[in-house]
Amino acid sequence: MNAQEALHGLSCPRCGGMVPVPEGQPIVICPFCELRSVVRGENGVRRYQVPNRINRQQAVQAMQQFLSGRMSIARDAARTAQVSEVILVYLPFWAAWGRGLGWAFGRKKVGSGDNRRYEPREVRVVKELSWNGAACDVGEFGVTVISLKDRTLEPFDADALHSAGMVFEPVGSAVEALQTAQTEFEAVLRAKTRLDQISQTFVRIVRPRLGLVYYPLWVVRYLYRGRSFQVAVDGFSGETLYGKAPGSVLYRALALVAGMAAGAFISIDIPALVLSGEDSDGSLEFALIAFVAGLAIMSGAYRIFRYGEHYEYRRYKSKQPTDSLSLLPVDGLGQAGNILRELEKLR
Questions:
Q1: CB-based contact 244:306 (threshold 8 Å)
Q2: DSSP-derived secondary structure letter, 318
Q3: How much is the pLDDT for 63?
Q4: Are 236 and 148 within 8 A, CB to CB?
Q5: Residue 219 gets which letter from DSSP?
């Protein structure tokens, strides 16, 4: 009896036999007398898994494409890299879903020049929200967030996952994960109001749901001139989610030379040309801006040369891309009471 079919057992009220209770299933059937029973109590956190659709060879090919597709990576990396290890891991991610409703009262800047003014606005935001975050220490793999859009969520099968690859168990609190998701939801709703001045906001998350998703990840480790690097490949889509690679010496040198030349021209030659002109109105301010911009370009070029020995890539640097959002303007102000009543109906 595997973990999917028997997370825990209860006694059958008719025959007294042990009835397996699959996780999250409200109705169970006794395997002895076939009596159907309703499970009452805390539902807990539902667990899901995303199927693995990428094999070992495809994961290695994704690694080679990653090494050959960027100028900042050593040109011979894809050709000389030696694969040392390829493993399939399933990482747990907390995932939350819900519908966000928000109203914002404030003012929007309109017009330009002498006609610029602030007009009162009331904006309603409606959004289907989705959030996820790593449920274990993923420092070794570099993937802290994934995209669940268009992903297939299947019932959790512990035996199947353990037989296919290495499975990591979640750590941390589900309550804390849900609180983090709600905070992210509220921040998204407030940011999308797009008002220049906000006097009051009302935000509600309707029926938030929390789950635990086990996501497949191919970890490809390789050697390049005696140094070890690794790439993490999405087991569902085949795209590279995280990767480390040796930097290109030629790219670093070109970036340094070109950046220093361009920065010197902008910060020295352009201010000198501007200040030598007869029209001095605004010349000093423009020259100062050009000087600072040139210094910034030279600083960026030096950073590429100094720290470009190792190249690091992340597909999702923060949170996964959000879905489309509908902003519905509402005519008039003073409708706070009606808004609150509508929100309470939807809770």
A1: no
A2: S
A3: 94
A4: no
A5: E
* Angle formed at CA 214 by CA 9 and CA 41, multiple of 5 degrees: 35
pLDDT digits (tens, 9 = 90+) for 222-281: 999 889 999 999 999 999 999 999 888 787 778 888 888 888 888 888 888 877 766 555
Please report, for the chain, the start and end positions of each structural domain, with discontinuous segments joined by +: 9-44, 48-247+310-346, 250-307
- pLDDT tier at 327, thresholds 50, 70, 90: very low
Taking the CA atoms of the chain, what radius of gyration do you get in angstroms?
Answer: 28
pLDDT of residue 310: 82
The Cα 129–Cα 253 span in angstroms is 45
- Tokens (6 digits) for 202: 């009302």
Residue 87: Cβ within 10 Å count: 13
Q: Which of 96, 31, 13 is nearest to 22 (CA)?
A: 31
Residue 71: phi, psi to the nearest 5?
-65, -30
SS3 content of the chain, % helix, strand, coil (to 5): 30, 35, 35
Which tokens in the block code for residue 43? 């539902």
